[in-house]
């Protein structure tokens, strides 16, 4: 491997413009594709194979009009005032009427007429059932839509259009809900509910297609229309985020991480020219990787977090990989007096080998997400993996080409003389003193690290998984204001309605009106159900749709229990009416996602650990070192999840990290962060421990190999870790709560793994086992190929060539 990479570095250094031109052409192609295709991201998260997704897929076939997306708008009055004044009612009525006239929006009057019902009360069967059920439902269906009334992020479909019908005839006044239809001239305004105190109104409507299929400009037209209701009336209009454009969640905060990275590079490399190379290489890699992802985003469904994840990982590893190679070249120039040309070749051959295997470990960890079988996670993994692959390829080809243009300027004469004078003394005094202390007090270090990380991991026991909703958004956002207004006026359950799809168990059976009435009445009596309203029955009576409003919010544990109870095939309701009940909606999707991820998480861990252990076995030719590396990682990742739970769920230091209210931890965060952190943690393992092995191979034994190897590699590993933490930490202050959580988990994970596990626990354990750490059974030693990561074969070959040329060191500087 090192010999091949040495030759590759020689070609790139000797003919730089061939390689530079090639990468510029690739970047130009990506830019051209991006210009032609544009950028398109989505909030859609499709959960293939889950119960909630199966319900939606079935609706698209049997009742396509019920599978369209949902939009909602909240109207609020100034404090102490009401919305149901003649002027404000007229403004809201006019806005609602105009929305129903727009393309791709279902007009409830047309929908009801098509169903054979009157245009004011919805389908006849719906109105009748609602009256018998007592407290009535809302206009429209349950939803699994991103930010429905400001409540979510997982966009899928919804059902039903309906009208605002209270259905309160003959009901016990004490049981009436604290809201009703908005009335205009004695007639209910279709689709609009108003709270009893008149302070807030909720307008819900149905699209003919999913939000992701809406043509560009439809949502903007709706927002423009509803905003007219607030002109001169004092009404505050809060469209749900399903109607807002999907922003790319990248802001100026990420630049701060890059600024810190540049400062660290200048300090570590001692040269602005040398410091600029890793930044340039990383930017080049993410420009092609992330730009390429956006360029094809019109053809694949890609969530808004996908390119951001690729940007996070791509920037961090791109800078680190280039730093390792440039640092190795400079050390070869300073320590061995090599020319910049020869030092660059050897750096690519030796440090480049470590970069290759470190990148391969990250890619394997990311691609392991494909076993989960969820398309949005698979796209995330593939985009991030391709970006890492590009970072590795660019570091091994474009970087030596740029080094060829810079030549001897990569290391000034002043820097050479300074470092040579320091080499006579103790060049890495701090690192050497630290590692000697770790070796001396190794048992104390081992016990202390385990105790600290174990304590940090304790909050994991209380971790609650889900998708952040409007209730966890910042107070100054429209999403949070909408969520709070709905909760205040109608109850928190309206932020996460459920859609129930009932089908007869007997294929020859049908759902009659009597069955539908009974289902509404009995579901209404289920614990934690606030409102039930039927939304329609398919022509042959094979499918009935009901809207269920829980009493609790979408992320509340009681709502999760309600979903499970409704899905129970052995429940009294299912047995009494001979039906199966399917449940979908925002909450149901969260439950299914968490269950799906929990099911495949052990399989995922086993796959990436086994494959990565094999790679580490090949690299280090040791059984103990890969096992130790994995155990150390498990400690750091558990501590990472513990601290993430404490901050984002328990709200520790929440003001410091720029959010107002805690909420659930992202359902896919543990499995995604585990994969990424494992790959990145093995990067530091490879670079640090390969230096210890190199010392061992070159004659150092016992603690001496640990101390010498640590002294050689610690400075660049610390610099790389600081850079990676800085890059990830820049995303903590993004406006999107998902990006915040991912950025924090990655930053704290690298901080713990690099500085606590790799810088303290690893040398302590390596010292504990001594030379036995490198022992390998002879039969296994014969089976394993020698990858020559340390470059022994390369150095032997170069020495032989020098001897043949009649000079002991023709490549050295004179």
TrEMBL record:
Region (Disordered) location: 125-178
Listed transmembrane segments: 17-36, 255-274, 281-302, 308-326, 347-373, 379-406, 443-461, 601-620, 632-650, 662-681, 716-738, 744-769
Membrane topology: Multi-pass membrane protein
Pfam families: MMPL
Any GO CC annotation of this UniProt entry: plasma membrane
Superkingdom as given in the UniProt entry: Bacteria
Keywords assigned: Cell membrane, Membrane, Transmembrane, Transmembrane helix
Low complexity compositional bias, start-end: 133-171
Protein name as annotated: MMPL family transporter
Organism field: Cohnella lubricantis
Lineage: Bacteria, Bacillati, Bacillota, Bacilli, Bacillales
């Amino acid at each position: 491997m090192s010999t091949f990479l040495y030759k590759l570095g020689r070609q790139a250094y000797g003919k730089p413009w061939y390689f530079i031109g090639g990468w510029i052409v690739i970047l130009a192609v990506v830019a051209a594709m991006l210009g032609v295709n544009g950028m398109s991201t989505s909030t859609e998260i499709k959960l293939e194979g889950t119960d909630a997704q199966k319900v939606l897929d079935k609706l698209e076939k049997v009742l396509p009009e019920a599978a369209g997306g949902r939009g909602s708008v909240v109207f609020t009055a100034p404090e102490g005032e009401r919305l149901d004044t003649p002027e404000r009612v007229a403004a809201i009525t006019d806005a609602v009427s105009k929305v129903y006239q727009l393309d791709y929006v279902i007009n409830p009057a047309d929908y009801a007429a098509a169903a054979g019902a009157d245009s004011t009360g919805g389908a006849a069967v719906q109105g009748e059932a609602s009256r018998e059920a007592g407290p009535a439902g809302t206009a429209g269906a349950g939803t699994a839509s991103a930010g429905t009334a400001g409540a979510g992020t997982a966009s899928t479909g919804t059902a039903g259009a309906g009208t605002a019908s209270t259905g309160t005839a003959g009901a016990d006044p004490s049981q009436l809900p604290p809201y009703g239809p908005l009335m205009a001239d004695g007639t209910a305004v279709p689709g609009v509910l108003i709270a009893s105190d008149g302070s807030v109104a909720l307008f819900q409507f149905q699209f003919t297609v999913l939000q992701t299929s809406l043509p560009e400009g439809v949502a903007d037209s709706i927002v423009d229309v509803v905003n007219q209701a607030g002109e001169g009336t004092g009404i505050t209009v809060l469209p749900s985020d399903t109607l807002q454009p999907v922003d790319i969640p990248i802001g100026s905060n990420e630049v701060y991480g890059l600024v810190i990275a540049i400062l660290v590079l200048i300090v570590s490399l001692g040269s602005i020219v040398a410091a600029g190379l890793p930044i340039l290489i990383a930017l080049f890699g993410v420009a092609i990787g992330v730009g390429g992802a956006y360029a094809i985003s019109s053809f694949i469904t890609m969530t808004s977090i996908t390119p951001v994840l690729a940007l996070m990982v791509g920037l961090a590893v791109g800078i680190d990989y280039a730093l390792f190679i440039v640092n190795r070249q400079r050390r070869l120039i300073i320590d061995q007096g090599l020319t910049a040309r020869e030092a660059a070749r050897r750096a690519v051959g030796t440090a480049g080998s470590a970069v290759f295997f470190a990148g391969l470990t990250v890619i394997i960890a990311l691609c392991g997400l494909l076993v989960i079988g969820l398309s949005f996670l698979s796209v995330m993994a593939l985009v991030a993996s391709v970006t890492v692959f590009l970072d590795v390829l660019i570091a091994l080809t474009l970087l030596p080409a740029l080094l060829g243009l810079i030549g001897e300027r990569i290391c000034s004469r002043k820097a050479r003389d300074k470092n040579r004078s320091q080499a006579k003394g103790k060049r890495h005094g701090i690192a050497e003193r630290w590692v000697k202390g770790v070796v001396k007090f190794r048992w104390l270090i081992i016990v202390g690290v385990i105790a600290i990380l174990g304590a940090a991991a304790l909050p994991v026991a209380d971790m609650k998984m889900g998708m952040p909703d409007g209730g966890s958004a910042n107070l100054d956002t429209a999403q949070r204001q909408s969520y709070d207004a709905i909760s205040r006026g109608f109850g928190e359950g309206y932020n996460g309605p459920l859609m129930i799809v009932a089908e007869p168990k007997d294929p020859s059976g049908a759902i009659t009106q009597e069955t539908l009435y009974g289902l509404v009445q009995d579901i209404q009596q289920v614990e934690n159900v606030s409102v039930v309203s039927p939304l329609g029955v398919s022509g042959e009576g094979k499918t009935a749709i009901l809207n269920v409003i829980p009493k609790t919010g979408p992320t509340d544990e009681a709502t999760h229990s309600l979903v499970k109870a409704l899905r129970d095939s052995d429940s009294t309701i299912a047995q009494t009416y001979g039906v199966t009940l399917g449940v979908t909606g925002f909450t149901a999707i969260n439950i299914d996602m968490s269950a799906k991820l929990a099911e495949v998480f052990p399989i995922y861990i086993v796959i990436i650990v086994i494959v990565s252990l094999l790679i580490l076995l090949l690299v280090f030719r040791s059984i103990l070192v890969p096992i130790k590396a994995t155990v150390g990682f498990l400690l750091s990742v558990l501590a990472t999840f513990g601290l993430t739970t404490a901050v984002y769920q328990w709200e520790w230091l929440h003001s410091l990290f720029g959010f107002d209210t805690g909420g659930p931890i992202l359902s896919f965060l543990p499995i995604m962060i585990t994969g990424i952190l494992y790959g990145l943690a093995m990067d530091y393992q490879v670079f640090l421990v390969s230096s210890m092995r190199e010392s061992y191979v070159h004659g150092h034994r016992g603690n001496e190999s640990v101390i010498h190897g640590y002294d050689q590699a610690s400075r660049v590993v610390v610099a790389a870790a600081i850079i990676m933490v800085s890059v990830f930490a820049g995303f903590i202050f993004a406006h999107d709560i998902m990006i915040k959580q991912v950025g924090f988990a990655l930053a704290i994970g690298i901080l713990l793994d690099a500085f606590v596990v790799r810088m303290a626990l690893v040398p302590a354990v390596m010292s504990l086992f001594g030379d036995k750490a490198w022992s390998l059974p002879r039969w296994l030693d014969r089976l394993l190929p020698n990858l020559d990561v340390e470059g022994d074969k390369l150095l032997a070959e170069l020495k032989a060539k020098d001897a043949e040329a009649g000079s002991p060191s023709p490549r050295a500087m004179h």
